[in-house]
Design brief:
Two copies of one chain form a homodimer. With 531 residues, the first copy, chain A, is of the alpha/beta class. Chain A folds into three domains: 2-282, TIM Barrel, CATH 3.20.20; 299-387, no CATH class; 398-455, Double Stranded RNA Binding Domain (2-Layer Sandwich), CATH 3.30.160. In chain A, 37% of the residues lie in helices and 20% in strands. The first copy, chain A, has helices at residues 26-39, 53-62, 89-96, 110-115, 121-136, 149-155, 157-169, 186-198, 216-225, 247-257, 271-282, 303-311, 338-347, 359-372, 380-390, 440-452, 504-522, and strands at residues 7-10, 43-47, 71-77, 101-107, 141-147, 174-179, 205-209, 230-233, 299-300, 329-330, 399-410, 417-426, 429-437, 463-471, 482-489, 494-501. Chain A has an eight-stranded parallel beta barrel with strand order 1-2-3-4-5-6-7-8, surrounded by seven helices. In chain A, strands 11-12-13 form a three-stranded antiparallel β-sheet, with helices on one face. The radius of gyration of chain A is 28 Å and the shape is elongated. The termini of chain A are far apart. The interface between A and B is large, with 116 and 114 residues.
């Protein structure tokens, strides 16, 4: 079955960091390297030596990691047109990185050679040949990427193949076909790879796809089905524009559905963990609806459907979510059935037996709240507090007494002012605090934290990161009920809370209060006054 | 070229609303219907009659819309096993919706028939036949969806095809193959469709794909390449779990790259607008990296790259972003901005010439506001006011002087009180009014109307019917900028307005003020003091 193995080449640390908003430290890059190695990725492209001090530091430090599965690759371009390869500092930087693998890209589109490189076609072939053959003396493996290969092939197929042939003649170990602009569709990828093979480039082919046409995953797989043995991509598909091919979809598709060997099968259970880990370090969210690894990838709505999925999950799930380390999520939405609540309690580690006499009343209470407008699917922290409170499992941290917010603007001022006051009771005395804020919710959040922080210093770690407001009963406009969802985080987790009221401030207040109490519960904080 | 036409069937309003966190009003659904109609979508699936009061209201109201391009479809299942078709209330509800198209799904997976429907295979065939043939008497077109068709085919191909054959025999106009669990890959889709055609189901085939394997776009297109003439999907791929097939990728791939006719070619330029419009109304964001329509889909990082892209964009972009109404991000696309604004002005009946010397400044102003967080796709009334104001075409109805809102609650009371005061100037004197409200925005709206109504009695007709709040810069929580969208209506139209501020009350206030001024403009109301 050797022919069924596909080498996974991860470029999260290089191409992936081109995504908007990404800014990783050397430490982040090293931690990601270790994670990908443990996951079983075959190649990790670490950066472009000489392009910035961070990448240089990375290549210095990565040598000290004891990697078990991954080979580190340094990335760079062919030599410049007007320099000899041994004179080109960019090439020397690659050698200095001392990686077991060097990946070189060369232009495979005639238009690019002429207009972007401003050289002639023949010279570009020499640049490819020189660079690859020179580097082969200094490192174990050279991978050649034909940049813009598919566009180049469509423009001048003969020349595009010549570029690959030059790299092959120079001893490149792998020839990777790149769809750099991401515009090629799978039917073209298939046709072109077949033709390339007919033209003599038959072995050790790879694919490097971008997602501009929303087909990067299948572009990569169709290349594999046609003989490619190496797939380039990034974790979560992070990358410039619409991103690179998403390894978090390609790996399970190849391994679980198409019978290929990618990372070790037992590691695929860590897929969601790897996805979250990388997302957290590069500071980009994993979209909830991302296939395989998103939080909602296996979420079920609707009562009949939800109870059926528990009985026979195969009927409603394309794979068992545990195979990729994900889990089934039953959305508690309008359907506070018994099995849903029991399932939820188990998930939240709340002891609740199917025969518990309080169960019908709890279900009834949730049903009432949902009818009123509460939505717990994106606010599990509030659901947990509700259930704990109902079952007598929620400590009393403080008593709320009153709040007040004032928002006022004169048109001679640019912005309104927002001032909040909060009064709470702890240990038999009142804390009465006031705060300004950018807006009313911010002011309330600050005033409440101010009142609590001396007794509960861990609340300083809580940050409100998202805030959503919806009308629940749409027909009556601003007099209707309003649902506020707040997402909070601390250093190691995120949670959602909800509030509902006819008053947007009251609804926000409820969600803010829940967010802070949840933090106390989560940290197992002892209530003041308890010994 | 008639054979190259693909019918686009949008199920955003039904399957799309299954996405986590989506909750649309009847008003939203009607506005989306109008937008999709104007865009040129062939079929709009509006909901499931009888499943909830909202969908019933929708089908009642949608009859009053004057649609130019789209046929409305009502969605439902085959009759229940133990009822005759004419006795089944679910079927009668479909007829009552009085749509030109009814779409019926029936189980095409033997396992589902036995385990979920708990009936036998033969009976299920009868249910399909009865339902389709009965409904054909009451409506122009019946579309049949074979639910779980691909999984069913893999389990029992003979039976799965029999289900389709029953629908065909009963007179179904289209036979749609659904990959309900989203686990099927394009190579299987291709193989199975070919076999289905060999088995006699050759014409009027459709595809309904979900994105659980990250291949829904190509699953849909590969079906078209193999003869399917109808594609089901949703705007932005919104939908349960990992979403439905994304029409915002399928339409440009088919129309711009594969030579098919989908929506009218000139409308594809509105793709991004439609994408944003729907996203704003269903209150889900469009991911920045979404192909074709995401804000970063054509974003270029890096200086050399950016300047090269200006010289010859074909080198770095798979299509011209303007073809889908998107824009290059590095480029201050003066020209694109200009033609857009001129186009908009024409649409809004605002006299504005291409050579108007004020145009660059207007474009600049709109650009600044958009950078700040304003979104005009779902708030054209605010855009119209902005343009009129800038061009000196907006009458001065009143001057704003100040507002103030107080929200306060003691925990001994059930609800907070909200009190607003507003001070405005008209005809050289001040109106200073106060009002309570269910919440702060309601109180402000009432106080402002109170101040204006004696001079502008038509404002009594304005009703705020929806209210949406979204964080613009999501990373900074309650201290971030907040965008409020308000939908208003009077007896004969609806309009959207927008406000942005760090303060939710200030943002709401802006949208409320715009809503009332827009009503005055719309009615050609004469400002007080003018003779």
């Amino acid at each position: 079955m050797m022919e069924k193995k596909v080498l996974i080449y991860d470029t999260t640390l290089r191409d992936g960091t081109q995504a908007e908003g990404v800014n990783v430290s050397v430490e982040d890059k090293l931690r990601i390297t270790e994670k990908l190695d443990a996951f079983g990725i075959h190649y990790i492209e670490g950066g472009w030596p000489g392009s910035n001090p961070k990448d240089d530091k990375y290549f210095e430090e990565v040598k000290n990691l004891k990697l078990k599965n991954s080979k580190i690759a340094a990335f760079g371009s062919t030599r410049r047109a007007y320099l000899k390869v041994e004179e080109d500092k960019l090439i020397q930087n690659l050698i200095k990185a001392e990686t077991p693998v060097i990946t070189i890209f060369g232009k495979a589109w005639d238009l690019h050679v002429i207009q972007a490189l401003k050289t002639d076609l023949e010279k570009n072939l020499e640049m490819v040949f020189d660079t690859v053959s020179y580097l082969k003396k200094y490192t174990n493996e050279v991978i050649f990427i034909g940049e813009h290969f598919f566009d180049g092939y469509k423009s001048n197929s003969e020349y595009a193949v010549k570029v690959l042939q030059s790299a092959k003649d120079a001893g490149a170990d792998f020839i990777v076909l790149a769809d750099t602009n991401g515009g090629t569709l799978p039917n073209e990828i298939e046709k072109i790879i077949k033709e390339v093979k007919e033209k003599g480039i038959k072995e050790n082919l790879g694919i490097h796809a971008h997602n501009d046409s929303d087909t990067a995953v299948w572009n990569s797989i169709v290349a594999v089905l046609n003989g490619a043995v190496m797939v380039h991509g990034t974790i979560n598909g992070f990358g410039e524009r619409c991103g690179n091919a998403n390894l978090c979809s390609i790996i399970p598709n190849l391994s679980l559905k198409l019978g290929y060997e990618t990372v070790p099968k037992e590691n695929i259970r860590k897929l969601k963990e790897v996805s979250n880990f990388v997302a957290d370090l590069v500071n980009l969210p994993v979209p909830k609806n991302m296939p395989y690894v998103g939080d909602s990838a296996f979420a079920h709505k609707g009562g009949v459907h939800a109870s059926a999925v528990i009985k026979n999950s195969k009927l409603y799930e394309h794979i068992n979510p545990e195979e990729v380390g994900n889990k089934r999520k039953v959305l508690v939405s309008d359907l506070a059935g018994k099995s849903n609540i029991i399932y939820k309690a188990k998930e939240l580690n709340i002891p609740l037996d199917e025969k518990d006499p309080r169960l019908p009343e709890l279900i009834n209470k949730i049903k009432q709240l949902e009818n009123y407008g509460y939505h717990y699917e994106a606010a599990e922290a509030s659901l947990e507090l509700l259930m704990r409170d109902f079952l007598g499992l929620l400590p009393k941290y403080f008593d709320l007494d009153a709040y007040r917010v004032l928002i006022a603007r004169r048109y001679s001022d640019k912005m309104p002012i927002s001032e909040a006051t909060v009064r709470i009771k702890m240990e038999n005395h009142y804390e009465h605090t006031a705060s300004l804020g950018n807006g009313p919710v911010n002011a309330l959040d600050k005033a409440l934290k101010k009142a609590l922080i001396s007794k509960y210093p861990n609340l300083a770690e809580v940050e409100l990161i998202d805030y959503k407001v919806r009308i629940v009963n749409e027909s009556s406009g601003t007099a209707a009920k309003i649902r506020v969802l707040i997402e909070s985080k601390d250093k190691d987790s995120r949670w959602g809370t909800v509030g509902v009221s006819e008053n947007v401030i009251e609804a926000s207040w409820q969600a803010v209060v829940d967010s802070l109490i949840y933090k106390l519960v989560k940290d197992n904080t002892k209530p003041v006054g308890e010994s």
